[in-house]
Amino acid sequence: xxxxxxxxxxxxxxxxxxxxxxxxxLEEKVRSILLNVKSDKDKxxxxxxxxxxxxxxxxxxxxxxxxxxxxxxxxxxxxxxIAIARENIEKFHKGQLTxxxxxxxxxxxxxxxxxxxxxxxxxxxxxxxxxxxxxVLMLGIPSxxxxxxxxxxxxxxxxxxxxxxxxxxxxxxxxxxxxxxxxGAQAIAAMAYGTESIPRVYKIFGPGNQFVTKAKExxxxxxxxxxxxxxxxxxxxxxxxxxDPEFIAADLLSxxxxxxDSQVIYLTDNRExxxxxxxxxxxxxxxxxxxxxxxxxxxxxxxxxxxxxDICIEFSNVYAPEHLIISTSDPHKLAGNVINAGSVFLGSFxxxxxxxxxxxxxxxxxxxxxxxxxxxxSTESFVKKISFQEITGEGIRELGPAIEILAEAExxxxxxxxxxxxxxxxxxx
Amino acid sequence: xxxxxxxxxxxxxxxxxxxxxxxxxLEEKVRSILLNVKSDKDKxxxxxxxxxxxxxxxxxxxxxxxxxxxxxxxxxxxxxxIAIARENIEKFHKGQLTxxxxxxxxxxxxxxxxxxxxxxxxxxxxxxxxxxxxxVLMLGIPSxxxxxxxxxxxxxxxxxxxxxxxxxxxxxxxxxxxxxxxxGAQAIAAMAYGTESIPRVYKIFGPGNQFVTKAKExxxxxxxxxxxxxxxxxxxxxxxxxxDPEFIAADLLSxxxxxxDSQVIYLTDNRExxxxxxxxxxxxxxxxxxxxxxxxxxxxxxxxxxxxxDICIEFSNVYAPEHLIISTSDPHKLAGNVINAGSVFLGSFxxxxxxxxxxxxxxxxxxxxxxxxxxxxSTESFVKKISFQEITGEGIRELGPAIEILAEAExxxxxxxxxxxxxxxxxxx
Lengths: 429, 429
Hints:
The structure is a homodimer of 429-residue chains.
Chain A: E1 2-5, H1 12-15, H2 24-40, H3 42-53, H4 64-73, H5 76-94, E2 103-106, E3 109-117, E4 120-124, H6 133-146, E5 150-155, H7 165-173, E6 178-181, H8 184-193, E7 203-205, H9 210-221, E8 225-226, E9 234-239, H10 245-256, E10 263-268, H11 271-285, H12 291-299, E11 302-305, H13 309-319, E12 323-327, H14 331-335, E13 343-346, H15 352-357, E14 383-391, H16 393-409, H17 413-425
Parallel strand pairs in A: 1-11, 4-5, 4-7, 5-6, 7-8, 9-10, 9-12, 10-11, 12-13
Antiparallel strand pairs in A: 2-3, 3-14
Helix pairs in contact in A: 2-3, 2-8, 2-9, 4-7, 5-6, 6-7, 8-9, 10-11, 10-12, 16-17
């Protein structure tokens, strides 16, 4: 962790730089995986599973028996916690598709937009170091609320050839049972192109390692939509001297434990807070099972003193953090000036873990500075908004002449003619 | 134009295939343009202008004098037509950012989303065969409504070194005066990286030729957002025997005149309509100034008889047209089954030209089948939706234990600890 006291504004951009990721090396590997899955389909997916997961599953599709087993394996305590999270996430995501009323933009001209679900979507759920069943909730619930017809999940199997029961339990709970045992770039390829077992989808969601991320980027070029570009996870905490250093350290560490490529930033207007937070980080770190990952992330991380809380927000807008925690005595005042952030947490009890799991907001958020130009996942991410219009004879009679003039000015005479013929039929050509 | 009578469903996918675009040849060229503009900035932009536009403009930025001149040059008739279009587009796009109310998802847990404009956006307006000032309205109006702080336009100069006055007039009308004389891949590069004259932006909008499209695709990989992937424009018209073949032919031709890579599809349940529409197309085509472009597009185009209107909609959903015109006696009945389309026009007076210019809907729409997974441009395209949450002591006391259980099940102990410490401070750790 670096401490920086009152940096010059000219140095902010440098301070906001993310740890760099090597890309070119990956691209070649991922391209070859995509090509192989495109041509050899299931056969290639099985081969990569043997190679990367160390296992050849009996079938790619999870069986009803495996799903039923998962329901037996999960403790009532966890089931209850999942039920609470589910309810809050559902409540929050239900409010995200309010239909817009039709508008008469001009006499005789009615226009409206309609939310229509993307028919086929694929959700990628990482396996690896943590069984991210919370992501099943965060992607599965809005896909169901949007009304997607085909929702599939791909997730890598463990060395026992099975997907973690927490993932299976959560998926079946929200009504998703087309679940496939494959991970990495091959899973993204399978969803993008389709195989004998795995259906092709139109949009792919979900986090993953660099292979997954690169594969999503490459299939996007071929017309498959993706939720958003991805990078390592990050959090920025702003506090004044009134905040509890223990809480701040805990929030920074909960971000840092995601992986050694994560980044955390702490901003304050109070120099003494830096030492207090640092001490707490060192103390709490010792007790963490994922201590090594967190330590790695802390190496990329910075504690920065700035002249005022307003300037902290200004800095944060340059950084554009995925998670922004504002733990000051009047967080609403600062919140009003947030321009670039994925999700914002106000006050000392609004910890990032709450949003990660159970408060109701989505945890699939823009990282790597993408909060400047992308939103997090919402129910809207699973629909298209299609515009409709209906024009009456009177409408075209009144509006038509303007359209004729505009089309002619753009030298598009056939566009003009489509109106002229209609005006003629109405007796005013 | 090919006529196809009652095709087998197994052949639909083949019928829905777009004319293919060669890509690899382009990519190398565009990559080198991007690299050069990234390193040499203005100097490279000027050099490409000389090479591709045949002109080296005095300065890249349009001067206030040039803008004032455009205001003098445009006729009152065109100004009036633009004013009408502007008003309708504003009305329709104003309704697209309704704020969502804050929700109490759980006792003591308040969550909400806020629309915040993307700070810096760039609008690309093609020059070339038609001065697309209507696109200035379609992109400029929602960017202003969203509240973007920096809105710039790039458009290629003509051989006189000037941007078409229709484009300048329209831009200044809606309050955009940072306009730059550059087109093609070099314009996209300049907006993505910034040069001495042209500021860097976070999201790039607008149509363009294959160089522009490829450049947008490539800068997207570097973190710049784009409106949507692009392909040639297209329309699909469905009618029964009650429709006027003259209107249908005019609509098909107004799509076809966009360029020889455009595609138009006509679907009907009535075999005789095919001949009537064909005759009208041949007749109207003769009078068109852009006859050659339209003829090229018609070569890619198809007239198809299907067993029923319901099956026409089914086919249309497989094709996923940018524009869908439903000209039947009961268009609303069919419209209810539309799943994949960019913009839908209902009834015999709702011609595509209306939506292209003046009814109020946006004309920047998903092409090339992307209507399956992308929406057209709207005011929402210019904002991020940032989520916020505020949790009280009571809220974390009640919800906290569930978060602890979920975090522990995901093996993320620091996430759990962030809650546990807060619960402890409240006396129930």
